[in-house]
Structures are given as structure tokens and as C-alpha cells.
Specification:
This protein is about 10% helix and about 40% strand. By secondary structure, it is mostly beta strands. The longest helix has 22 residues. It comes from Flavobacterium subsaxonicum WB 4.1-42 = DSM 21790.
Length: about 290
């Protein structure tokens, strides 16, 4: 005979099982930053000088200079400091290069806080401070014009240009910019057509974000990157500033999908600080983000 007590017990066990399943299936944020940079490796190329023309630098005798290479933290370009009990990555910018994740990521939501330092280095002492988050990074470092980074897509971090798009090496993508009202656009955030950008498209490999949402100088700017099945969104302080799809690279005239890879944080002649670098897996593209691609 099934008693009331047994029924209540079964119901309770069912609720526990449901709660446990729901908890384990919920995507969790993973912290990518710790004091030992245990989830990252690094690469350094050269201390570039003004007038760099894309060729390997040479010494006074005309002999090619070799890049610093992998996992050699020359001049302490990458250091982790502590602020208010939190690990903060300082990138000096003195030598071009990057830290890059040991793991590859495909469908995910990444977020981080970024703040500029004071120091700038050649060849950008008279230019805007510059860095970037490079995603879907594949292959070896040093494949770009500056011989510093992997083939990848770039979430640009630059003074006044947070969220711009750049291609690295022979990457390409289709971009839909959201243009603010009054700038060649009668309706704010009206959806523009997707345009192919970069290698193999006949259009230079960059696109400006539609709006500037960078925090004031000295304050942290929160940036978010959403990637799902070749689509991506650049988000600055909660505002979507760039919409992209059909991520790929071009090799021997053929397009190859570029939908997963490592994540690089650039060292590019400007002192930059990063904290709260978090990532979580996406099983589906949330509706509020999917709407940008309709």
C-alpha cells in the first residue's frame, strides 16, 4: 500500500533531483585571472620603433633580430598586482605581444574590466592608447603585420574607440554597425546591412563602433564579448556597439570558418590593466542577443 508518507517522500526526492539537475545545467562564470596567470601563456615579439614597415627588425650590423618568443616575460611586460584584494593584470605595453589562454573556447560570453595606465611606448607615444581582446585565435603567434599575434578577430580597446573591430592576419567577418541617430541615420540604432570586412573582401580590415560608451579616464570600463556559432557582439558598459557574423579566415582564396580558438590580451605600446576576466559557456544564444541578427 502506498502511504501518504511515501508519496511525500517521493515528491521531495523528485524536487531535489530537479533542483540538482537545474543547478548543474546552468552555465557558471569561470574566473580566468589569478595571481599566477595559471590559465594563460605569453608571447613577446619586438620593441617596435617608429617607421616600422612590416619587416623583421635588424640590428646595427643588418642581422635579423629574433622575437623574444613564448613564455619569456622580458621586462616584466605582464605582471599580476593586487588591488583591494583582487588580482589585476598589468600589461606594460613595452614590447608587442600577448597573453593567451591555454584553452580554446567556442560558444561563450566573456567579460572583463579594463583601465588605462599612464605609460606609452614607441611607436605610439604620440597616438591614442591601444590594446585589444583577440578572439577565435588559432595557429602560431607573429602572423600579423606587427609579428606579435595569432590569426584572430579583434575587439578593439583604444581610447575613444572601445569596441571597434579589426582583423588580425588573414581573418575576415561580416559587420553590422549600429549608427547613432543623426550620423547618416535618421533612426537611432537602425539595423544596417551586414558588410564583409577584411581579407578577401576588398574593404580594409577595420570598422568603427557606432557609439562611444567608454568610462572617463582613470575609471574601469566593462567590456563584454558574446560569441556563438560564428556570430559575435562587442558590448561596452552594457551597450552593444558592434554586431558581427560569418567569422572566417581566407587561405589560398578560400574562406574557412573561424568559430573557436584561444583568447589573447594584447600588449601594444600602452600600459593597460585588466581585472574580473570571466567566461561562461553558451548552449544557445540568449534571445536579447539573437535579436541583433534578425
Amino acid at each position: 500500500m502506498i502511504t501518504k508518507k511515501l508519496l511525500l517522500r517521493s515528491a521531495a526526492l523528485g524536487l531535489i533531483a530537479f533542483a540538482t539537475t537545474a543547478f548543474t545545467e546552468k552555465p557558471e562564470w569561470k574566473n580566468l585571472l589569478d595571481k599566477n596567470l595559471s590559465q594563460w601563456e605569453m608571447y613577446l615579439s619586438y620593441s617596435h620603433k617608429p617607421g616600422y614597415n612590416g619587416k623583421i627588425p635588424v640590428d646595427a650590423n643588418g642581422k635579423e633580430i629574433q622575437p623574444v618568443g613564448y613564455n619569456k616575460n622580458t621586462a616584466n611586460v605582464f605582471t599580476v598586482i593586487e588591488e583591494k584584494g583582487e588580482p589585476v593584470l598589468r600589461v606594460s605595453g613595452e614590447i608587442y605581444g600577448c597573453v593567451f589562454t591555454k584553452a580554446e573556447y567556442e560558444n561563450y560570453h566573456l567579460k572583463a574590466k579594463v583601465r588605462w595606465g599612464e605609460k606609452k611606448w614607441d611607436p605610439r607615444t604620440d597616438k591614442l592608447r591601444d590594446s585589444g581582446i583577440l578572439y577565435h585565435s588559432v595557429g602560431e603567434c607573429g602572423k600579423d603585420y606587427w609579428r606579435a599575434w595569432m590569426l584572430s578577430q579583434e575587439f578593439q580597446l583604444m581610447e575613444g574607440h572601445m569596441g571597434d573591430y579589426w582583423n588580425i592576419a588573414n581573418a575576415a567577418i561580416d559587420v553590422r554597425a549600429f549608427i547613432p541617430e543623426g550620423i547618416m541615420n535618421p533612426v537611432a540604432n537602425e539595423k544596417q546591412p551586414f558588410l564583409p570586412i577584411a581579407t578577401g573582401t576588398g574593404i580594409d580590415g577595420f570598422c568603427l563602433r557606432g557609439e562611444n560608451h567608454e568610462s572617463p579616464k582613470g575609471e574601469w570600463t566593462e567590456v563584454e564579448l558574446v560569441c556563438f556559432e560564428g556570430k559575435s557582439l562587442h558590448i561596452v558598459n552594457g551597450h552593444v556597439v558592434m554586431v558581427l557574423q560569418n567569422s572566417r579566415y581566407v587561405e589560398n582564396g578560400k574562406s574557412v570558418p573561424l568559430t573557436k580558438g584561444k583568447i589573447q590580451l594584447q600588449s601594444e605600446a600602452a600600459e593597460t590593466f585588466y581585472k574580473d576576466v570571466m567566461i561562461k559557456e553558451l548552449k544557445t544564444l540568449p534571445a536579447e542577443y539573437a535579436a541583433y541578427f534578425k
